[in-house]
Amino acid sequence: MDFAFTSEQDDLRREARAFLEATPSPSMEQLAELGWVGILQGDDFTFLDASVLFEELGRALYDGPFALNEVAGQPGDDVWSIEIDGFVPHLDKVTRVLTPDMRGTKAQGDTLATVDETLGLGRLSRNGAEAAQGEWVDVRRRLLAALALEAVGIGSKAIELALAYASEREQFGKKIGSYQAISHSLVDGYVAVELSRSLAYWAAWSVAENDEQVDLAVAAAKSQASEAAVLACEKSIQAHGGVGFTWEHPLHRYYKRALWLEGALGYGREHRAEVAEYLLSS
Amino acid sequence: MELRDTPDEAAFREGVREFIAQNLPSGSKQRSARRFEDADRDWSRKLGEAGYAGLTWPKEYGGAGAPYSHQAIYLEELAEAEAPSHLGVIGLGMAGPTIIAWGTPEQKERYLSKILMADEIWCQGFSEPDAGSDLAASRTRIEDQGDHFLVNGQKAWSSFAHIADFCILIGLGLPDEPRYKNLTYVIVDMHAPGVEVRPLVQITGHPEFNEIFFTDVQVPKENVLGAVGDGWQVAMTTLLHERGTLGFALSATLDVAVRKLVALAKDRNVTDPILRDRIAREWVELQALKYTNYRSLTTLTKTGIPGPEGSASKLVWSENNQRLTKLALEILGSHAQLTDGGGYADGYWQYQQLRSRGNTIEAGTSEILRNIVAERVLGLPRSR
How far apart are CA A194 and CA B377, in angstroms? Predict the structure, then answer.
């Protein structure tokens, strides 16, 4: 039993966090220079190494197709997105799109106005589709795990912002974080994110090892982590008061990403229906 | 990262399974264990003899000196078999570790091995009618009479007191000293003259807890843990162990509850999608607690210090257990009122649901635990 990342993976996390603090919106070329692009293609890295990046990119509110391209797992120099529930994130930033029928299509179509303005969500015009490599069941598992990890990054950042604010902002002559109405609410947000972090890491390990429980792990992780991220953002907005409700403050962008993650590849109840089927029909 | 057992862990797990298969008394699975029975003492002694009772205790005190992962595996396997736990919960988890940390060589020699073998059962004398969450407000008096201490006062909410041989007790040793410097921590013989135990009937109708009255109880001077006036520090050691080692025991308990919930749902052929969603959520919450404990375990193994992720285990477990037992009643539907002989599984769920209301109160209320997480884990400013 060893449920921790290796020291190399911890180094990768530190490196990623420092890079993304300076460059929160890197191009695919910049990520390729770091050696991140295609990290899942060779034999040097596992899904656990990639999962460190997925979480850190979530934390930095990264707005590009890196994770989708990795998860799609297609050979060649194209940058891939994946059609999720009928829509394609970052359609304008990729060259090809993987669809759940495991066909690859040229990235063409209309980009749509979305709540999360960084999503670049598009509707694909399907022409010139060719067979793609791999199985959808594997892509879907990797995608669910990646979405869960991104949500953990979002949720923990939202709570950190609230903790910093509550430790500084004073009302009635005291730091608002000393009031239990504030602190207990943030504890609940923190605890929800930390519990879902454990599920997301379990899911990442299960994907890396192709463990027999992988489908349950990704269902549990995706549903719980995305719901926890939404909860964390809502608690953070509330703790920030009026400031948290402004367009100027970054919180709304974390919140909108969390709302996207909550619904992508199905809301929590759809994944729990799978879990219930496993528990009650066997 | 490796979530499978190492060869050493797998061998240990196999050993625990064999032990349970050969020694678990038949019928213990069906029994709802509302009151402790002689069978539990025999089972506890067997666990002690096999070396499972003090797995993580140092070898010099009769423990196995085993890694924390063995403790986690042992508890998982007990849960899997729905086997009762060792009767000496307070001795193993609280009194023992406190004696190991603060005790004299004579105290260690006198008490520790008898805790492991369940030869002597312990209870805790911390809470009082006017000192609950505010433990430092204790009014029980521990007076120095020269050649002994004289103890007078009342303790409440004490599990196991009716079968206990010893009590870890804190009270006012130096009443003129300021708060936190006025307390003394002593070991009291529960069979001494002047100790009276009265069962406290809970909302379940069962007397699982007790009140303890101490009237001019003479306690030998050598029974003090730490020095007179060190009581608060010694008590913090006890509470650290109470909450620190509790995580795995709690996820093991919840594991049993989820198994029983799923069995109930299958038995009742639950098709309602809302109920199915809620059952699945309880399973997911269990995995979250379990894997969070694994993360704490890894941190503990690597650094010797429990990680912050573990501090919320008890908080989460108590709310999970309340939600889960309530869900079981909803699955029972119109039969939820029928209990004991007339109801499903002899009133198991009705008892568990009422009992679960205590979970957010005992061993630190949820309000106190949220304060602890806020201040010590999240670094928020103090609330008082």
Answer: 12
Instruction: Pick A1's closest partner by Cβ from B69, B289, B379.
Output: B69
Q: Would strands B166-172 and B195-200 be described as parallel, antiparallel, or unpaired?
A: unpaired
pLDDT per residue as tens digits for the range A29-60? 999 999 999 999 888 899 999 999 999 999 99
pLDDT of residue B265: 97
Any chain B CB within 8 A of the CB of A166?
Answer: yes
Q: Mean pLDDT across chain B, nearest whole number? A: 91
Residue with tokens 């909860």: A231
Decide: helix, strand or coil at residue B202: coil
Which domains are assigned to chain A? 136-281 (1.20.140.10)
User: Could you read off the pLDDT of A179-235 as tens digits, one per residue?
Assistant: 999 999 999 999 999 999 999 999 999 999 999 999 999 999 999 999 999 999 999
| Distance (Å) of CA A222 to CA A141, A154, A202, B17, B91 | 10, 13, 11, 33, 41
Chain A residue numbers touching B282 (CB-CB < 8 A):
none
Interface residue A163 vs chain B (CB under 8 A): yes
- How many CA within 13 A on the CB side of residue A138? 14
Q: What sign does the dihedral A155-A157-A158-A160 (CA atoms) show?
A: positive
What SS3 string covers B118-138?
CCCCEEEECCECCECCCHHHC
Average pLDDT, integer, range A68-92: 97
Tell me the per-residue pLDDT of B127-152, one tens digit each, with 9 for 90 and over: 999 999 899 999 999 999 999 999 99
pLDDT at B33: 47
Specify whether the CB–CB gap between A148 and A125 falls below 8 A: no
Encoded tokens for A204: 């990442």
Here the ipTM equals 0.97
Contact: B284, A272; criterion CB under 8 Å: yes
All domains in chain B, ordered by first residue? 7-87 (1.10.540.10), 122-237 (2.40.110.10), 245-377 (1.20.140.10)
For residue A101, count CB atoms less than 10 angstroms from its CB and return exposed for 0-12, middle for 13-18, buried for 19 or more.
exposed
B242 is catalytic: yes
Q: Classify strands A174-175 and A170-171 as parallel, antiparallel or unpaired.
A: antiparallel
CB atoms under 10 Å from CB of B160, counted, come to 22
The CA-based angle A226-B286-B14, given to 5 degrees, is: 130
Question: Could you say which of A3, A183, A194 has the minimum Cβ distance to residue B383?
Answer: A183
Both structure tokens of B309: 């992720």
